Write the structure tokens for this entry.
Amino acid sequence: MNAAFAPYVAFGQKAFAREATYRVEVFTNVGSLILRVYLLRSLWTALYRQNAAPPDIPLHAMITYATVALLMSLVLEIDGSRSIREKVREGSIATDLMKPISLPLYFFSDGFGQTLFHALMILPSLALALLLVHVDVPSVATLTAFAISFGFGYLVNFFLNFMMNVIAFWTLETFAIQLMVRWASDLLGGMLLPLAFFPGVLGTIVANLPFAAIYSTPLRIYIGELPPSGWAAAIGSQAAWLLLFAAAGAIVWRAAERRVVVQGG
Amino acid sequence: MPERATHQSKAGTMPIIETRELRKVFRSVKRTPGALGALRTLFSREFVDRVAVEGVTMALDEGELVGYIGPNGAGKSTTIKMLTGILVPTSGHVRVAGLEPHADRKRNARNIGVVFGQRSQLYWDLPLIESFELLRAIYAVPAGRYKENLAEFTELLEMGDFLNTPVRQLSLGQRMRGDFAAAMLHDPRIVYLDEPTIGLDVVAKEAIRTFVARVNAERGTTFILTTHDLADVERLCRRIVLIDKGRIIYDGQVEQIKSQYGTHRTLVVELTEDYPAFAVPGAEVEARTGNRVRLRFDRRTVSADVLIRRVTEAYCVSDVSIEEPELESIIRHIYVEGYTDPEPGSGAAALPHPVEA
């Protein structure tokens, strides 16, 4: 293993181990997941019965969409860089800066370790949920494209959260702003419902916002709304958003670091 | 303990830490009180400058153990932050082991270790040993060296019993020992200690002090110790740097400051009877509890044996003892009165204005 990355692999492992110390939380999450999957199925079934269904998304695809979106959210809602604001508030960011490491990479690997743990914990609950609700399982090719797209979505989401947390260097508190961004990304990113439900111009706008790169693109690939011919373009636009967010994140981080080293935090 | 280098750098040896005219000014937006004032603050371009460190010049040789002492807000931690590279000086020059810390922060980080008494660097939820392993990865400590260091520190700091205990379950004394080991696993050349014994009991304090003295003597690690517990300094440091209001007011040997200021001694007398009108010419009664009397005297005007004779001739005494002044009372005196150099030109200048202690 490359020595330069050894610390970050270790950070990921420690984060994984740390999450594992909170077992009760895991079990509660599993319990609530099963309940939520069942509720979502009932909700969408009722909605489809009362209303005209949208042309592209039949009920079984909708239930699949909602269930997969929920599972994705269990991973994407883990804000790996949230420790930034605790560290800034407590001032322990100063001792972290005294270490020979890249802090953004540290936060990423720490978050990734947490994510990995929770992703593994989802598996048994996923199996249980599948007994309750029928979920479409697409072809291997589609699943692979979904996995790649989900990876990009994960990274875009990481940088979005990272930037929100770095704001703490100026404001100390970021709760309100993060809540707003979270709601926006859940609604406009297609977590709560497919973006196809947004009418007319509004639909075009939300489809072109960066939030769509987080939930909507991988989900559209999964349920087959996006044909294989459209995969490359869709993943390409995710990659473009990722580059933009990564660049913005780097700029924001440099400014934050400068603020600490010049003004003393 | 072997003889260590003093602060006068010898010809040919480069100091490991060197600052010249180091200065740090914090600038903040001027705040106006009240609700309207808060609004005004948002748009205000008026600034207030606060000078935290003003012209600090010092040089430390490798292997020195220096106490960096000053009241709260004197500029101690600002100086340390500039030495660790997490704060950019407003002006002046700073070199730590040949590097400019803020310009070369990550490389500088490999040369230093830090221990904060008030803030642990250990992973709260994981067993102590896991934090050490993480640090091994961060600093890329070779496996053999890591094993040696871990074994040595575990023995010296008696950590064997709690290496596998999660940090959150450790006592403060155990946690501090863990923090010391954590700061030194990568063989740093310089270690900054910030209030390392705060809140510890006597036994734990002593364990930590012994550890520091030993690492300093055996490995030649340079230590800068900032503390309010001057017993730490008395026990560990031969040299102290006193800072106040951002300026160095004394830089020299602990012994020198003690002999210079230690003009007063205390004679403790245990009387066999209660003497309501107890008094001795040449000394003043400092305190009296029961039959125990503390007499303060100036050793330049009266010698201890003369004083003892005067007491025993007039009163029945069961015990006498003489107390040396503690560094703490001397330093308190200097902050109130200012430091006056007995030989002008050999040290720092006197502080022109009195300071609240």
Q: What stands out?
A: Residues 6-263 of chain A form one domain. The radius of gyration of chain A is 20 Å. Chain A is about 75% helix and 0% strand. Chain A has one domain: 6-263.
